[in-house]
Automatic annotation (TrEMBL):
Residue spans crossing the bilayer: 27-47, 290-313, 334-362, 382-404
Pfam families recorded: FtsX (PF02687), MacB_PCD (PF12704)
Name the record gives this protein: ABC transporter permease
MacB-like periplasmic core domain mapped to chain residues: 26-253
Keywords for this protein: Cell membrane, Membrane, Transmembrane, Transmembrane helix
Subcellular location: Cell membrane
Signal peptide: none
Membrane topology of this protein: Multi-pass membrane protein
Family: Belongs to the ABC-4 integral membrane protein family.
The organism's place on the tree of life at top rank: Bacteria
Organism: Winogradskyella aquimaris
Domain ABC3 transporter permease C-terminal: 294-409
């Protein structure tokens, strides 16, 4: 056992000396592996960070929440021309659903928000996303009010001229002053600010911080069921103990009957579940990971070939030295370990540099982006980078090391003379 340890130690020392004696070659070999590991781990870390950010944004929502509308939130087999002819989801549809579908914990009618201008005295903010939506969204989206309150069901049903703002929007419009009770102009009409939501932080563009909410019926009073032709949807949150499959079947059947669809006619609406959206996101994340592996794998492959090429050159240059070592009693395993360690050290050091660059990139990106997005380099990705670089070193060095260990000492000395 001690003999093997001494062989490994001496082989390791020889490998380090060989790398130190050829600094330029060592640097070029490191560069290939560094770029490969950096590419793969950076892509994987970015995709993991995106996945984490999406899941955090959806974590507060009930995955069984459904959106009944004419649009599909994911891939569908229904042709485009047929979907374009689906009727819009109107407020009357919402009234039918909430009065006739059992086991609904909460529901809401939303008109997908348009970009509006909000004015307060001399202050004007343009391109603000204002979402006309009924009171139920407060429960469905688990919204939190920091100042004031959200509008009530009565205010929602009667279309009261009130507005609830996100924290960032309120800060931009009112500064340090208390916004509650202030009167703003939206849609050319006066609305009273009754609430400001807590600060959520920017996620994927769906944070309520820069948005405003108004009762859908307020907008319907002067814009005939929509905002500049924007479509509506019914948001449904089933009760917690309900069989979701059975609930969806009942919902579809009753809504079909309500719309007068015959048994042989296809649905002219879609029921989109958040759980389906999560699965769709998972599929996209998986595809991004695969594409990242394929693209970055080429960089790593080039780095591996670079190490293998350098090792073959190293064996060729040191053929005479290998012959001398063997003539003095060096075993095949000593020569094998010597070159194998050289390849592994090259790959591991290159991989560690690549990981360090990814870590630095993560720090810089987090400093630039701030709270909008968190770039995370997980321990799993770091271990994967280290393992990959070690594997590439072994794979690239095993054939040159084996060929060096099998050299005949006499032929090796003669070749080098």
């Amino acid at each position: 056992m001690l003999v093997y340890l001494r062989v490994i130690k001496e082989s390791f020392s020889f490998a380090l000396n060989a790398l130190r004696n050829n600094k330029l070659r060592t640097f070029l070999s490191l560069l290939g592996v560094t770029v490969g590991i950096f590419s793969i781990i950076a892509v994987l870390a970015a995709v993991d960070s995106l996945d984490r950010d999406i899941k955090e944004n959806l974590s507060g929502l009930d995955k069984n929440t459904m959106y009944l509308t004419k649009y599909s939130f994911g891939p569908t087999n229904v042709p485009r021309w047929k979907r374009d002819n689906f009727p819009q989801t109107e407020y009357d549809d919402y009234e039918f659903v909430r009065r006739n579908i059992p086991d609904i914990e909460e529901s809401a009618y939303v008109i997908f928000g348009g970009m509006e201008t909000i004015r307060y005295q001399a202050e004007t903010l343009s391109n603000v996303e204002v979402t006309p939506i009924s009171h139920g969204i407060y429960t469905i989206d688990d919204l939190k009010v920091e100042k004031g309150r959200f509008y009530s069901e009565l205010e929602s049903d009667t279309g009261a001229p009130v507005i609830v703002m996100g924290s960032e929007l309120a800060e931009n419009l009112f500064g340090e002053s208390n916004p509650i009770g202030k009167v703003v102009r939206v849609y050319g009409r006066k609305l009273t600010v009754i609430g400001v939501l807590k600060k959520y932080g920017a996620g994927l563009g769906d944070s309520p911080d820069g948005k405003a909410f108004v009762p859908a019926n307020f907008v319907r009073q002067f814009r005939n069921g929509g905002v500049n032709g924007l479509p509506g949807a019914i948001v449904i949150k089933p009760k917690a103990d309900v069989d979701i499959g059975a609930f969806e079947s009942v919902l579809k059947q009753k809504f079909r009957n309500y719309r007068g669809l015959k048994a042989d006619e296809d649905d002219n609406f879609f029921v989109n579940k958040l759980s389906g959206l999560v699965s769709f996101v998972d599929a996209i994340i998986g595809t991004l990971n695969l594409v990242g592996w394929v693209i970055s794998g080429f960089s790593l492959l080039v780095g591996g070939f670079g190490i293998a090429n350098i090792m073959f050159v190293s064996v060729k240059e040191r053929t005479n030295l290998i012959g001398i070592q063997k003539s003095l009693g060096a075993k095949n395993r000593f020569i094998l370990f010597q070159f194998l360690f050289e390849a592994v050290i090259l790959a591991v050091v290159g991989g560690l540099i690549g990981l360090f660059l990814v870590w630095m990139t993560a720090l810089i990106m987090n400093g630039v982006v701030g709270d909008d997005f968190t770039f995370v380099l997980s321990f799993g990705n770091m271990f994967l980078g280290f393992a990959l670089s070690t594997f590439i070193g072994l794979l690239s060095g095993v054939i040159p090391a084996f060929s060096a260990s099998r050299l005949d000492p006499v032929e090796a000395i003669r070749t080098g003379m």
